[in-house]
Design goal:
The structure is a homotetramer. Helices cover 36% and strands 17% of the residues of chain A. The first copy, chain A, is α/β, with parallel strands linked by helices. The radius of gyration of chain A is 22 Å and the shape is elongated. Chains in contact: A-B, A-C, A-D, B-C, B-D, C-D. At the A-B interface, helix 4 and helix 10 of A face helix 4 and helix 10 of B.
């Protein structure tokens, strides 16, 4: 790894701002574009003409906004992604988050070396921490009881499930974990949770004050929602299409919070630090 | 302890509501007054004429509102405490929270046996749990970083300090505890926190992302506040007059949250359960 | 799953004894053979003539002793595995632990359906708990300092590494975790350990009171051992050939404990319960 | 506090050795006597003639052995305590552990300023850590089950009870705490243990795999011991006369381990560090 990189940070929200600041603090040469309304960004540039000199150009997470253009809430620019990439040189390293097939194709056409940092396992793990904290925050805000002593069911025992269960237990909740695989249930038991087979969940659902879904399938369908106590809170952390039948929940009068993209919302500064770590890992592995 | 008590729950907020419900669910004979606007209270009574039959009359926490009358946010009644006590019989057991000298005198004049449940050690300990959770909630809401990895200083190591430090550490924060007594510092170390002598705090204050004060003295004066980083959050859990020089903090642009009476706010249902436990302990000890 | 199974438990140590007892307590029909010297085994049989009636025959962990015969420390029998299998019928379900290629071939020849429960992920996870406790016990016995405050390095972050790090941290040690993969290091950090890149370990090895190796490669070679403090304890939990250069350690005068097969030694009753769970999972999946 | 003290460390076991080493490493002028057979003690002196120059003379814990003389297992000397004190000057500071009335009187006669460090609260708290670890070690060694999942009852919730319960819970045991006071039970609950009233323990004693007594009264009398399961392990951490009816336990065939003075046995180096801290606190407070 070289001592100093030339990095352009283009577009994005507070996470990109923090990323730019951290890289700058560590002595790298950092330029920013399409972040001009943010406070404290290093070296805001008027255009992308010198971006082709960068060792790496970092696009935001997600790279494209709802309109398909560069995701740049801190900017007046409504830049097309194609235009951004046109400013770069063949072979240049570009890091982007949640790159769409269209973006990948644009990069391929221009012979850019595009890496989607959102695919990196270490970013997913690190992001599970703010996601779990976000779930704790929602539970603290919404429940009229303490988490201490609360009966909590965590559905799914992947990254987010593991760290969410850990935090609720740490706060004194009695945590059960529902999963399909025997090995996941063995893990759950080894960490001190009550293991519940997902297939046999039906009899015990009435026992919970809080259900947190982390599984990417519609686990909480109408039949299961009906078994919950009326004042049970449901937090769904699964990405689209989510794991809860929202219509059924609404008819039953259950409170369901579908919480997406928590890291950038609850801890943007930490999320920026996680981006920085991941970008550095990518560049180290490339020998840049 | 008798199988069934006759208990009157008079005035108060959600905690009193929950207290009444819990006692009712356990088979006691419960009547309520001045809670008529709350949902689901057992046996709302039109007047206090039969209250003199009760084994125990429970007044709220605090017993008196700002205006000195019965604290009764769920009621149209603006009852004088003297009037409430007039309905009772000499020798009757009355439980009240934070009874003022005036209330104690009124009770003495009427030969009532008034017990202030807010003086009970077990209630103070149990209430420290929702207080600590409230501090966690505020920190999660206000900080742009995760508590995981955050550097947290807890000042004071009494009930609230102990349980607050425990929860922040459980969430992955690096917790230091400042106290005066060697024994408190030994406790802090035994629980895995970094002990800091309160007298020698000055050099290290710049290291924290969050300072939670639980000591009942103005520990965070202007000189110490000046040493905090500008984006350090301060949460003051100390009751009046508080432990932070608010004026100095304001001048320095520091964010300070002075959080009082958290249990009733963040977890009224649990706080009602704690009331129930404490009332039962009092009645058990009296042999009622 | 049927209400009652007919199970034969053949040979083995206290774990098999406990397995037989647990299955019996749950209402299954249990017979034992080659456990006759153990106390409290259900239905010890004189020969294997009725074993062919069993729904499942359970051989021990490992199935074969050092001499290649049935591993049966609680028995006078020195039975050949071939002889044991001759008593069974084609198609019968046999569960065995660490089945050798020779045993697999014997079973194949007899058309037995042999399952190696030691290959099951959930058994490996569950066994990591007693392994981790065994490491804690060794550290408590050998170190003249408390684990509270001790500086512990766990090398490797697989099953045993995860649960070992968890327990040392729970006891107040300051735990670092060394691993190769970024994702493992992200996990380590998410659980509150100090992540250390295995490749860059060399500078920091002098800082530890205890090093626990769980990686299956010779991570602690002579060059690294030299950097340890003379009173640093090394516990190697890796199976053969182990992860420590024992010769170099001996020359340096370092204390190294190579601890193998801990579950059966430190918690045979729990290890028997784990066997039971795993056997039941296998039979459930087979629809027996 | 001065930069450098002149300290004499007289007699004692590994703890005194470690104390002397630590003070020496920190730059103090340290002399030792009656430790001549220990390895690595600083400045072993032939006699006490210069001890009167010391800022502080530290006698061991306990100061007197079984024979009433100086407790000095690392020495040939069989010194009378009176003789040791005769070498000192009036007004000199002496620190001793568990000073007997006889020793106090000897010191008074010679106008020495004797402080019993064993009376210091911070030493008692700090020593509760190695005591709790010793209890964990015993349980790991003796129980054939993992502590993970074990049902543990801790009797008493003072210093040792608190830290013992904490460690067993941290290792995954299901911990109940029995105490008399409502406030202690509220603490137990706040830390996540199941609270049990000591008076109402009788019905539930059969549920435990391990009972750890920390209360200084004979809580486990014959009637209660009878209710334990035969394979329940009892660890008594209470000092003389202990909290278990040993005769009754023996008749019932129960395993009882009465573990006294654990800190010096299980973690002498840490216990020496604790002595050092406490001696320093005493000297700081005296303004030496």
């Amino acid at each position: 790894m070289r001592n100093e990189w030339n990095i352009w940070v283009v577009g994005g929200d507070l996470r990109q701002v923090r990323l730019a600041q951290l890289l700058c603090e560590e002595g790298h040469s950092v330029h920013t574009w399409a972040l001009e309304r943010a406070e404290g960004v290093p070296e805001p540039m008027a255009d992308l003409s010198e971006a082709r000199l960068a060792d790496c150009v970092v696009l935001p997470l997600p790279a494209a906004g709802e309109d398909g253009r560069l995701n740049a809430p801190f900017s007046e620019e409504k830049a097309e992604l194609a235009g951004v990439l046109d400013a770069l040189r063949p072979g240049q390293v570009v890091c982007a988050g949640r790159a769409s097939p269209a973006l990948l194709e644009l990069a391929r056409e221009r012979e850019l070396r595009l890496f989607d940092y959102f695919d990196r396992e270490e970013l997913a793990v690190a992001n599970a921490v703010p996601t779990a904290e976000g779930a704790v925050q929602l539970a603290l805000e919404e429940l009229p009881i303490t988490l201490h002593g609360a009966r909590v069911l965590v559905v799914g025992f992947g990254r987010v499930g593991k760290l969410t269960a850990h935090r609720f237990q740490a706060l004194g909740a009695r945590v059960s974990v529902a999963a399909r695989k025997w090995a996941d249930l063995a893990w759950a038991e080894a960490y001190g949770y009550v293991p519940e087979r997902l297939e046999q969940l039906d009899g015990s659902l009435c026992a919970y004050d809080l259900v947190v879904n982390t599984a990417p399938a519609q686990v909480l369908d109408a039949a299961r929602l009906e078994q919950l106590e009326p004042d049970c809170l449901v937090i769904d952390l699964a990405s689209r299409p989510g794991g809860v039948d929202l219509e059924a929940a609404s008819e039953l009068g259950l409170r369901v919070i579908w919480a997406l993209s928590l890291p950038g919302k609850v801890a943007p500064v930490t999320a920026g630090r996680i981006l920085r770590d991941t970008i550095c890992h990518i560049l180290c592995e490339l020998g840049v």
